[in-house]
Amino acid sequence: MKRKMTFKQFLFLLPLLIVMAVFSIWPILTSFFYSFFDYRLNDVQKSSLSFSSKFSSRQFHENVSYIKLFLSEDANVALKDSKAAAAFHDVMQHSDTYTKSYSSLKNGNISLVKGQQLLRDTQALQSEVQNLYKKYPNTGYANASSLPKIFAELKKSVSPSNFVGVSNYAKIGQDKRLFNALWHTLFFTLVSVAVEFILGLILALIMNQAVRGIGLIRTGALIPWAIPTAVSALIWSYLYDGSSGIISHIFAKIGLIPSSQTMLLTGSGAMSAAILTDVWKTTPYMALLLLAGLQMIDKGLYESSAIDGASKVQTFFKITLPLLKPSILVAVLFRMLDAFRVYDLIAVLTGGGPGGSTETLSVYAYKTMFSQMNFGYGSVIVMFMFVCVLLIAILFVKALGTNVMYEE
Length: 408
Known about the structure:
3 strands; MetI-like fold; about 70% helix; three-stranded antiparallel beta sheet; about 400 residues; single chain; mainly alpha
């Protein structure tokens, strides 16, 4: 019978819930909110989140006055041509109507619809002026080349809202770079975790043996995992170096690569280098989780199987592996989620190159947000990663059984 949580029990969990809300839930919600804006720190008009447009009355009136002045000057030149004079008169009337329509607007925020309408009317007036000079050319016009610049400044009097709704998400389907990064991420995750699981299981079985010096073996095996990932990547970048790296020279000697110079200069070589570095770094972590599971298995089961005449292979597949299933779930799931979000290893070792061949989703999101300063679409990539990680967790747990931790 399940017992309901009491208020005092809830208070014990409250600090943990607050920490999760601040450091996990809040960043996700913030990224989700940013994804609905064209938020760019390298663009003055889009460097803040705004649902409404901003209007500069001074800039508007200053530029429309120049438009009226320039048109009137060239209209005097066109008086000799009745058709051109009539056309200039019509355009100047339209300009006056345009000015009166928006002259009452004041500095500050205006509605999104009003801002969009102002920009459309400005573009329509500019097109009308351009067609006028194109249809009635005259070498005497002094302002034909200046008016486009005035219109460009006039458009800056309106800073449109950078709220774009779901249009950022619509770009995902056309973003080939995103799907290439997804493929690189999946390939890196599946290969590295598979190799780490096999090597980690072997290492865990060795460390589980009661032999002399096993403490030293366990300590030495955990050293790679204790080294920070960025430091590990830097160390291995020296080992892969084409001129002095011993690993690249060994691989070239045994024929794995055509030349020691190509280890980090080809797509397949760079990806292999990243996977090898990750396997070296995180196999001890996988072994540590599996070792904890091995030590939970009752030793009496092995003694009974030995009495019954079971071989080592039979004991492994009939006793060890089934009882190790909960630990395998935890170890592989944690490593898959961690590998899918890989950033520091790739950033330090290859930078996503060569030619984007090792660019993962995390690296792509970083470049979009901090190199291009496009936090709007960068947040979309982050939300895409969040959905992928969520799906991996759900599918993985469903595949192995949600109650595997409680199986007897």
